[in-house]
Amino acid sequence: MRITFASALVLVICIASPSINAFAAGETGELVTDLPVEVERNKSFDFYVRLKPYASDFKGAVMVQMQQNPNVEYDQRFFILEPGQAQKVTAKVVKSDSGLAVINLFAVNWIAIDLAIHVGGVPLNVVAKLDQPLESYRRKSFLVEFTDDTGKPVRLESAARLLLEGTNLQVCSDDSKDCSAKVELPLKKEVYESTAQLKANGWFADTGMITMTLSTPTGYNVSSGTLSVAIVPAWWILTIMGMLGGLTYSMIKFLRTSLQLRRKRSLAVWIKKTAMAVVVGIVPGALAYPLATWNILGIKTDTTSLRGFFILGLLFAYVGMDVVLALSAPKKTKTT
Questions:
Q1: Counting Cβ atoms within 10 Å, is residue 131 exposed (0-12), middle (13-18) or buried (19+)?
Q2: Residue 209 to residue 214: CA distance in whole angstroms
Q3: Given phi > 0 = left and psi -120 to 50 = alpha, else beta, which region is 40?
Q4: pLDDT at position 90
Q5: 100-107 and 62-66: which strand pairing?
Q6: 125-232, which class in CATH?
């Protein structure tokens, strides 16, 4: 590396000065700046760096250095800064695959500037992958990927935040038992995907939507995406509807038969007949879900409709258990 006269002079000043922060341990503070939230790739931009010492009587010179990386170029490698001064720095983002870049300036014993900015004009897609449909009252994991226009995974070039918002859905982080309509996940540098879980709390078939927003740690939006989610009732809800349908028919039949009787029955007989009517209705109705879902009887019905399973349970109770079991049993082939 070629050392110019100016660079050598700065190094001599840094080494010789007793007030340089390297020799002023304890007199620390922060490096502060106001960065633009969005810049263009291959286009220079300016920002100013200042000292914010914790000690009000701090006096001295601090050598501030820029972190060298292939993605961001600076007009200088280091400079000397004193309290009350503002140093102008010109930078240029020459490469960014994720639409993010990191501006990093540091000094010994001072809190560094380590901020992410958005690089405009970089195509980044936020894509979710979910094995659909989503059964209500059951958590299911889904994957969020960051890709370019060709679908190739893209690693984030800085830390970021991922905001997940659900419509007719609840979002859960993998390490939490609680779910809510909105969850924000912190993302580390170099990640290209993240995982979370979805949950729907409803008795009816519905359609939900998950909105995913990627932003910088300071909250500036970088990219976003959406995913439509098909929600189906849980299996136990459909089973209950089939049982209610079967129970409805058996109780109507029981009450009609009881009203037609002229002689009074004893309490024990009433209890026995009522229990029998409940069993005769519930059992065929309970078979409605597995028989329809597994397509054993060849009955085509909407497996997400509560009304459809209610009617199917009523139908099974009407034809009786013996007919249902006979139809579901495998047929024997005649041998000659």
A1: exposed
A2: 17
A3: beta
A4: 95
A5: antiparallel
A6: mainly beta
Q: How far apart are CA 251 and CA 307, in angstroms?
A: 18
7-62, pLDDT tens digit by residue?
544 444 444 443 444 334 445 799 999 999 899 999 999 999 999 999 888 888 99
Does residue 309 come out as left (phi exceeding 0), alpha (psi in the -120 to 50 range) or beta? alpha
Strand partners, 134: 231
Two tokens, residue 174: 């993998």
Establish whether domains 5-120 and 125-232 are of one fold: yes
Domain boundaries defined on the chain:
5-120, 125-232, 235-328
pTM here is 0.74
- Residues written for the chain: 336
pLDDT digits (tens, 9 = 90+) for 116-142: 999 988 889 999 999 999 999 999 999
Question: Which of 1.10.10.10, 1.10.260.40, 3.30.390.50, 2.60.40.10 is the CATH number of 5-120?
Answer: 2.60.40.10
- Give 203-261 as a DSSP string: SS-EEEEEEEEEE-TTS-EEEEEEEEEEEE--HHHHHHHHHHHHHHHHHHHHHHHHHH-
- Give per-residue pLDDT as tens, 221-280: 999 999 999 998 888 888 888 889 888 888 888 888 777 776 677 778 778 888 888 888
DSSP notation for 253-322: HHHHHHHH--SPPPHHHHHHHHHHHHHHHHHHHHTHHHHHHTTSS-----TT-HHHHHHHHHHHHHH-HH
Q: 83 versus 299: which is more confidently predicted?
A: 83
